[in-house]
TrEMBL record:
Keywords linked to the UniProt accession: Membrane, Transmembrane, Transmembrane helix
Name of the protein in question: YibE/F family protein
Pfam families the UniProt entry points to: YibE_F (PF07907)
Coiled-coil regions listed: none
Superkingdom of the source species: Bacteria
InterPro entries referenced in this protein's UniProt entry, alphabetically: YibE_F (IPR012507)
TM stretches of this protein: 112-131, 138-157, 163-180, 192-212, 232-253, 290-312, 332-358
Length: 374
């Protein structure tokens, strides 16, 4: 008996390396090309196995329009999108060298013309009704995305703290974007200082929230795939908190500029008014603004999570369990931390604006108005 066991063990040790080589994983080769539906060969509705849900299944012939197989006409089994003749879509050609598997699959509809059309409409409307200020806003928007792609994304991928990188990039976006849009003057500077201070406070609050909630950051499929792709080099819990800082910039910008302008105008029409009186009245304006801004932020995040909320509502998930789950708790923290930042921006920017603009008494803006008038 002992000899048999030893013989089996030796035999297994000899063969193990061979099996290891034979079962080595070879990644699939995927080539994505644009294609056009030439013909719908067949179309039927099938029930997905194990469910009561029906799904459309098509057999289509498609012509490949670019890439190494340009001009080829192939047959594809499609159960992903409902396509019609002449529709354009992206086609995936998957090849596995180890198994010899070779197949085509429908990937996505070709949406770029629609995206470019709406982009052109957005630019046209902004320039038509915004004029020079609209152009400056568009330029600031382009610069903001440039900072995100040049600094934020590479910084996070390099392994730096996502929250710290987001704080730095958010401050840079605020600084450059504000001066590009509103010019270099004390009103803009007051708003910029208020926004940067708010970004720093919100970043500190995000750190605290991260420590208390212990989020893993793996609440979406994209996060899981990215973790494998980067071999665990990214702090995903910090990443979702850094996303809060970038996400509030638009609303924060609106609040800070609004308060700085309010203070400037109050000083302009009330030459003998005290700083405290201007602060109190500007804060009164800001309080009305806060309600709309917080509501905007909360509804925006809720809208993004709507499919998930519908799923949980439909399956009757326990409320306390649903709120405790990371995928829901993350959105709640986004709303709360972001809203706290927006609320803090109002008194902060108002106080900074009163301090900076009191001595100028509208001189900067008056000069700008005269310049535009000429």
């Amino acid at each position: 008996m002992t000899i048999r066991v030893l013989s089996a063990g030796v035999f297994a040790l000899i063969l193990f390396p061979l099996f290891g080589v034979a079962q080595e994983l070879v990644p699939d080769t995927v080539v994505v090309s644009k294609a056009r539906v030439v013909e719908i060969v067949s179309q039927k509705t099938l029930e997905i196995a194990g469910t009561d849900t029906e799904q459309l299944h098509q057999t289509i012939r498609a012509e490949i329009l670019d890439g190494p197989e340009k001009g080829a006409v192939i047959t594809v089994e499609n159960d992903f999108l409902a396509l019609a003749e002449s529709d354009l879509f992206y086609l995936s050609h998957v090849t596995n060298e180890a198994s010899g598997a070779d197949y085509y699959a429908v990937s996505e509809r070709y949406r770029l013309p629609a995206l470019l059309g709406f982009l052109a409409l957005f630019i046209a409307v902004t320039l038509a009704f915004g004029g020079k200020q609209g152009f400056r806003g568009l330029l600031a928007l382009v610069l903001s995305f440039a900072f995100i792609f040049l600094f934020l994304l590479p910084g996070i991928l390099a392994g730096y703290s996502p929250i710290l990188v987001a704080m730095g990039v958010a401050s840079l976006i605020v600084l450059i974007g504000s001066y590009v849009t509103h010019g270099v003057n004390r009103m803009t500077s007051a708003a910029v200082i208020g926004m940067v201070a708010t970004v720093l406070l919100t970043g500190a609050l995000a750190y605290i929230a991260l420590y208390l909630t212990q989020f893993t950051g793996f609440y979406t499929d994209a996060a899981v795939y990215l973790n494998f792709n980067t071999r665990g080099a990214i702090d995903f819990s910090g990443l979702l908190m850094g996303g809060i800082l970038i996400g509030i910039l638009g609303v924060l910008y609106d609040a800070a500029i609004g308060q700085a302008v309010a203070v400037e105008e109050l000083f302009a029409i009330g030459k003998g008014v005290s700083r405290f009186e201007v602060y109190k009245r500007a804060l009164r304006i800001g309080r009305e603004h806060i309600g709309a801004l917080v509501n905007t932020l909360a509804i925006a995040y809720t809208g993004a999570a709507l499919p998930l909320l519908l799923l949980m509502y439909n399956v009757g998930t326990n409320v306390s369990l649903a709120l405790n789950s990371e995928v829901i708790a993350v959105e709640i923290i986004r709303i709360l931390v972001g809203s706290i930042g927006i609320v803090l921006a109002v008194p902060l920017t108002t106080a900074i604006s009163v301090w900076m603009l009191a001595g100028g008494r509208h001189n900067d803006s008056t000069a700008v108005m005269h310049k535009h008038a000429h």
